[in-house]
Amino acid sequence: MSPRRNYPKNRKSGGDDEYREINPSNQSFEEDEDGLWVVRKLTGSAASKPYRCPGCDQLIPMATPHTVAWRDGEEDLRRHWHTICWSKRHHRRPKKF
Ligand SMILES: [Zn+2]
After folding, report:
1. How many helices (H) and strands (E) does the chain have?
2. What is the pTM of this model?
3. 35-42/27-32 β-pairing
């Protein structure tokens, strides 16, 4: 047994971040042929209702970590995506866009 206390440097998997829903570091920009997108990763803890993912047309259950994205300047049109669906959106592009 080591007497040293071993603090993990990377605590991403810990619960400390669960309540930090609005964290600028969780937000990024992605540019594609449709324009510049603002992409925000949500932990899901602040979700108060299920959202329908435009990528797969399935509901995202409450309190599920997911991705919110909108075109820059169109935050009113933001959509909630499964994180995996957002990353795959170019493979199964919704016709609405
Ligand atoms: Zn989805």
Report:
1. 1, 6
2. 0.66
3. antiparallel
The reply to whether 36 falls in a domain is yes
- Please report whether residue 50 resides in a domain: yes
Domain range spanning residue 67? 24-87
Per-residue pLDDT of the chain (97 residues; tens, 9 = 90+): 656 666 555 544 444 444 444 555 689 999 988 899 999 999 877 667 899 999 999 999 988 999 999 999 999 999 999 999 999 987 655 555 5
CA of 32 to the centre of ligand 1 (A): 19
Residue 92 inside a domain? The answer is no
Q: Could you give the number of structural domains in the chain?
A: 1
**Token pair recorded at residue 23:** 């964290």
| Alpha carbon of 37 to ligand 1 centroid (Å) | 18
- Rounded-to-integer distance, Cα 13 and Cα 73, Å: 32
The token pair that represents 74 in the structure block: 């169109």
